UniProtKB/TrEMBL annotation:
Entry-linked Pfam families: AMP-binding, AMP-binding_C
Gene3D superfamilies with a match to the protein in the record: 3.30.300.30, N-terminal domain of ligase-like
Region of interest: Disordered: 444-463
Any GO MF annotation of the entry: acid-thiol ligase activity
All copies of domain AMP-binding enzyme C-terminal, residue ranges: 376-450
Name recorded for this polypeptide: Acyl-CoA synthetase (AMP-forming)/AMP-acid ligase II
Superkingdom, taxonomy of origin: Bacteria
Residue ranges constituting the AMP-dependent synthetase/ligase domain according to the UniProt record: 116-325
Transmembrane segments: none
Keyword check for NADP: no
Basic and acidic residues bias spans: 450-463
Alphabetical keyword list: Ligase
């Protein structure tokens, strides 16, 4: 293995960072040298507990400096690292060493020999299993090897794609919350450290309060929470002058909604596209969107190899996952000849920007014909009275499934369901016309922050 096997770049950065603050949790600030020592002690404790190459370590920890150290230490000893989920079966945990807060405190008491820590991961061993939300069934464990994680550009400034290089200048105080097992949270956290920034804990990640309280310059935000932040800023604006970047994840934004976000929040929106299986695929910057409004309808220029096959986006990158844990059938379906099927529909425009057109599997089967949710949602969202639009499929005795729409109105406006149905018929087709159009004040969100379509379906108006 090369000297820079993951997480060696982070171990080296911390070992030479001295008194630079790298983690802030309320009044407690952890310096680079303190973090490096904590990682060494926890790594020693993990080794004494039997952890090492090929051994599973499952972390059941809140977001703290010690939890970050434990994550890096587990990688450093070459373990197979994952985050705890209550819905994981014993087979999925597969005999892992489970580390909770009490055990972590014990691990951190091991003596520090002060010697440089050398990453022990083996190239083809699984380094990380990231569990998907399970919104479409049983959670899938996305497996990324040490070779893949070692190929990542995130900790190396000279390898950053242009959009990331611009984002990195705004990562002085990156807000961390939820779980460090989240690929997005950890990936941007590593970026912040490589850019010279500090990870700042938000115990209550309510926006805009957390942004103001912690004077955050950057944060991840889901589409649903972004819509709510915009509404709150319009109704009761707070001072967000310190904010430099909001990285939008979860689902694509309609061009009008992106333009509104830039107008209300300023040039801070970075609209990214990626998957657990691939990490970041593309990103469009505020400067690009403000300079060229056509890019509002895209997710930016891909930073990885992209191939469009029968309308579906395939991705290839050295950092991609290799399989799903203990699921050979699904692995064979998604990981094809060195490429990852994203299950997203898309196209590349003449300037190389990627435009997403919907989910290949976000479909409603009406009279045995597929209706993709994306085009219907975009047609509804194009109406001036609609702030957000989502559609779901529900069982129907006549057609198998029927389309049901849910819209959040623009403040002071009242959507007309009949006009919205006509709009869908004109822009999509008659098959896609919603059976019902339900006006809701806010869209229920899943724990991931994404719209919870199963709960939406329960709110529909009777036909």
């Amino acid at each position: 293995m090369p000297a820079d096997v993951w997480p060696q770049p982070i171990l080296d950065l911390l070992a030479t960072g001295e008194d630079r603050p790298v983690f802030e949790d309320g009044p407690v600030v952890t310096t680079a040298s303190e973090m490096a020592g904590l990682i060494r002690r926890i790594a020693a404790g993990l080794r004494s507990s039997g952890a090492g190459p090929g051994v599973g370590v499952t972390l059941d920890l809140p977001v703290t400096a010690a939890a970050f150290a434990a994550t890096m230490a587990a990688f450093a000893v070459g373990a197979r690292v994952s985050g705890w989920r209550a819905d994981l079966s014993p087979a999925q945990l597969s005999g892992s060493l489970i580390v909770d807060s009490a055990q972590l405190a014990s691990l951190a008491e091991h003596p520090d020999n002060g010697l440089p820590l050398v990453a022990a991961g083996r190239a083809e061993d699984p380094a990380r299993i990231t569990w998907t939300s399970g919104s479409t069934g049983t959670p899938k464990g996305v497996v990324q090897t040490y070779a893949a994680m070692s190929a990542a550009w995130v900790p190396y400034p000279d390898r950053w794609p242009p959009a990331i290089a611009e984002l990195a200048t705004r990562m002085q105080r990156y807000l961390v919350f939820g779980s460090l097992a989240s690929q997005v949270m950890l990936e941007y956290g590593v970026l912040a450290l490589a850019a010279g920034g500090t990870l700042v804990v938000a115990p209550r990640p309510v926006f805009p309060d957390a942004l103001v309280e912690h004077q955050a310059t950057a944060s991840v935000i889901t589409v649903g929470k972004l819509h709510q932040l915009i509404r709150d800023q319009r109704a009761n604006p707070v001072d967000l002058r310190h904010l430099g970047a909001l990285m939008v994840s979860g689902s694509p934004l309609a061009p009008g909604r992106l333009a509104e976000a830039l107008d209300v929040l300023g040039p801070v929106i970075f609209h990214g596209y990626g998957q657990t299986e691939t990490s970041m695929i593309a990103m469009v910057t505020p400067a690009e969107m403000l300079t060229n409004p056509a890019t509002l309808a895209t997710v930016g220029r891909p930073a990885v190899d992209v191939s469009i096959r029968d309308g579906e986006v395939y991705v290839r990158t050295p950092t991609q996952a290799s399989s799903y844990w203990q699921d050979p059938d699904e692995s064979a379906e998604v990981f094809v000849d060195g490429w990852v099927r994203t299950r997203d529909l898309g196209e590349l425009d003449a300037d190389g920007y990627l435009r997403l057109l919907g989910r290949a599997r976000d479909v409603i089967i009406v009279n045995a014909q597929l209706v993709h949710a994306g085009p219907v949602e975009r047609a509804l969202a194009a109406d001036a009275t609609v702030g957000e639009a989502y559609v779901v499929g529900c069982p129907d005795e006549m057609t198998g499934e029927a389309v049901h729409a849910f819209v959040v109105p623009v403040a002071g406006r009242t959507p007309d369901p009949d006009m919205l149905r006509k709009l869908v018929a004109a822009q999509v087709n008659d098959l896609a016309v919603p059976r019902t159009v339900t006006v809701v004040d806010r869209v229920p969100l899943a724990p991931s922050g994404k719209p919870d379509k199963s709960r939406l379906a329960q709110l529909r108006d009777d036909p």
